[in-house]
Design brief:
The chain is mainly alpha-helical. 62% of the residues lie in helices and 5% in strands. Helix 1 runs antiparallel to helix 2, helix 4 packs parallel to helix 6 and helix 5 packs antiparallel against helix 6.
């Protein structure tokens, strides 16, 4: 198997709509999603809580679906695909996870320092990358409303998980 084609050597790549420049806003958003997925996979490898591991695996699958939707492939192959666009149910899933883990935390009255356990700080990096990814998805101009809500809720969930993992691993929160 060959892992390169050479077709991108001129600064262009393919999406469902055809060839586009690699600095196209959709390609930038896809690149940010790819980076976010890599960071989330790395963070998940450090998390000891199996419930959070399973939650993150579902998030990884949703990020894949967002990439398929943004690239146009979801529309191009939808009749023959099990991949579905992000929906209100996906947003609700994240909101329920936020509520579940928020109940396990103290109320927040100060800004939390971005420190603590290795797993927690990796999740916090994921939160920051999610915020950038959200901006690039908006800039792409092709995002659906559920997709935008999903990625917005994801950054909130990752913040809650950052706090939760720190506490679960015995790290006290530090504040500014």
């Amino acid at each position: 198997m060959k892992y390169y084609s050479g077709t991108g050597d001129s600064g262009h790549t393919s999406i469902a709509g055809g060839r586009v420049s690699k600095n196209n806003p959709i390609i930038n958003a896809l690149g940010d999603l790819d980076e976010l997925s890599a960071f989330i996979g790395n963070a998940n490898s450090q998390i000891k809580d199996e419930n959070i591991n399973d939650l993150i695996k579902k998030i990884e699958a949703a990020l894949y679906r967002i990439s398929a939707e943004l690239s146009g492939y979801l529309k191009a192959i939808k009749p023959n695909s099990d991949i579905k666009p992000i929906s209100d149910a996906d947003v609700t899933f994240l909101e329920e996870a936020i509520e579940l883990y928020t109940k396990k935390l103290n109320d927040l009255t100060k800004f939390v320092r971005p420190s603590g356990s290795y797993a927690a700080t990796l999740i916090n990096i994921c939160r920051a990358v999610t915020r950038r990814t959200e901006r690039s998805i908006v800039e792409s101009g092709v995002a659906s409303e559920p997709m935008l809500r999903y990625i917005n809720r994801l950054s909130s969930l990752l913040f809650v998980l950052f706090r939760y993992i720190n506490i679960a691993e015995g790290f006290e929160e530090e504040y500014f």
